[in-house]
Write a structure and sequence with these properties.
The protein is mainly beta. The chain contains 5 helices and 34 strands. The chain has a 6-stranded mixed sheet, with no helix packed on it.
């Protein structure tokens, strides 16, 4: 079946999306006559994944998937209250549905597969027809949109082509742009001999009707949707040869507030608050761009009212060949980490630790080897232990690798080496005894002893404590002066005595 969509008339009216042919099956004909973009509040305003782990990961299980995995989406597709996963493929042209279980993980003995008419490279989830069941929207490798309606039991009916009547689609994002409670689509397109290349908006009116807005937005290689000026409406950031910021008046009409020329290609654009720049804790979104084929990040700091600083590049010495960058609160607080996959001969899962102070978005980096040719990544609580995990699909192994998040360590106070609840000369003395008289004193929490938080136990630690005690050095690293978990992962252990004041 082909769903045709016509452009918005100049008068502002819309046209009904009509079916080219009737669908057979259990769904009423009037429901199949049009595409309705409807989703829950949490889907219209996506939340950053949040867990209570340490920010470290260990390899877990792996399981086989269909050939040439391309993308994954998550949601409760069979309405049982557990998170499921959909995996779409390229060459094998399949949708696989992995159903979540009450104990965590997926039921690998009950994997459903549905044929696709084309190779797919991108997928997302919404309740398009407002029947309460999640559906799939798919982007093919040739730049066409397809819709698969969900049955609410983990099944999907055949993919339908959505005929939009313009050039190849390169990317799409979902959000409620006209504040009517229904999901809309922002589409980037590819320019060619016949023109095109503009960014377009497909609006739902919530009555089973949808239309293309007449507005033509600039060409973009990447886009982001978020509330950039804090007024409760979703705005747009588009990155092409110029980065443009478009503020929404709440009805889906936009005005350009800022333009920044770019001398690099933006691969991915994220709208995330990565800098704790307001003492009242109110979020101001920043614009973060993955650039140069995943070789660096560019930052535009939000200063309020939808205005941003000029772009500044960084982290080119840390990341390489990065893709699928995803923000996540791995420890549940502070600013988010950026988790990504990197392809090539040194393929790896990478984690940039959130820092957020002193103008530094990230500080600290971990990497974990993964099979070559990673295709996509999802962050979720796979084993339902409250700690975020990472799932990576690889086209070289046709498998999904699960990296399990490690739980956070105990609360401690850095610098209180002897765990007596006080911060005084006894602490550097204990530190020196541990260093030079091993085995003769009680081994303290190693993280408490690591006063400068460099992951090492050496003379710099008692020197740091002494310098702080006598007012000549920098403060002891967090957590200090209050108890807390270690904000930076390392190989140090922390075994606290029973009478430790943080226990």
């Amino acid at each position: 079946m082909i769903i045709h969509v016509l452009n918005q008339y100049s008068s502002g009216s819309s046209v009904m999306a009509a079916r080219k042919s009737a669908r057979s099956g259990a769904y009423p004909a009037f429901m199949m006559a049009c595409l309705m973009l409807v989703c829950s509040t949490t889907m219209l305003f996506p939340q950053i994944p949040t867990g209570s782990g340490s920010g470290l990961f260990v390899p877990g299980i792996s399981f086989s998937v269909a050939d040439d995995p391309a993308d994954m989406a998550v949601g409760d597709y069979n309405e049982d209250g557990f998170e499921d996963m959909v995996l779409v493929t390229g060459e094998s042209m399949l949708v696989q549905v992995f159903l979540g279980t009450s104990g965590g993980g997926f039921d690998l003995g009950q994997v459903q597969a549905f044929d696709l008419p084309v190779e797919i490279e991108e997928s997302d989830t919404l309740d398009y027809d407002a029947d309460g069941f999640l559906d799939l929207i798919l982007l093919s490798d040739s730049g066409q949109l397809y819709l698969m309606l969900g049955g609410g039991d983990g099944s999907f009916i055949d993919a339908d082509l959505i005929d939009l009547g313009f050039s190849t689609i390169t990317n799409f994002e979902i959000g409620d742009l006209n504040s009517d409670g229904h999901g809309d689509l922002v589409l980037t397109t590819q320019s060619g001999f016949g023109g095109g290349g503009e960014t377009r908006i497909l609006l739902s009116d919530g009555n089973g009707d949808y239309f293309l807005k007449a507005d033509l937005f600039p060409n973009a290689s990447a886009l982001g949707i978020g509330d950039l000026d804090g007024d409760g409406d979703l705005d747009l950031a588009l990155a092409g040869s110029t980065l443009t910021v478009h503020l929404n008046d709440g009805s889906g009409d936009f005005s350009v507030i800022q333009e920044e020329p770019l001398d690099y290609t933006v691969d991915q654009l994220l709208l995330v608050d990565v800098l704790q720049d307001r003492p009242d804790g109110i979020e101001i979104l920043d614009i973060i761009c993955l650039i140069d084929n995943g070789g660096a990040l560019a930052f535009l700091q939000g200063v309020g009212s939808g205005v941003f600083s000029p772009p500044a590049e960084g982290y080119g010495d840390v990341i390489n060949n990065a893709s699928d960058v995803t923000p996540a609160y791995l420890g549940g607080e502070g600013t988010p980490a950026f988790v990504y996959i990197a392809a090539g001969s040194s393929s790896h899962l990478g984690v940039l630790r959130g820092h957020g102070v002193d103008g530094i978005p990230f500080e600290g980096h971990q990497s974990y080897p993964i099979p070559e040719n990673p295709a996509c990544m999802k962050i979720l609580d796979y084993d339902m232990d409250g700690v975020l995990d990472v799932l990576i699909a690889s086209s070289s192994t046709n498998a999904v690798e699960v990296f399990l998040g490690e739980p956070a360590g105990p609360d401690f106070r850095r610098g209180d080496v002897n765990s007596d609840g006080f911060f005084n000369l006894a602490d550097p003395i204990t530190c020196l005894q541990v260093l030079f008289l091993p085995g003769q004193v009680f081994a303290p929490c190693e993280d408490s002893m690591d006063a400068n938080d460099d992951g090492l136990l050496d003379l710099s630690d008692p020197i740091t404590v002494l310098a702080f005690l006598f007012g000549t050095g920098v403060p002891v690293a967090a957590p200090f002066p209050d108890c807390g978990t270690d904000p930076t992962p390392d190989i140090l252990d922390c075994q606290l005595p029973l009478n430790d004041p943080c226990s």
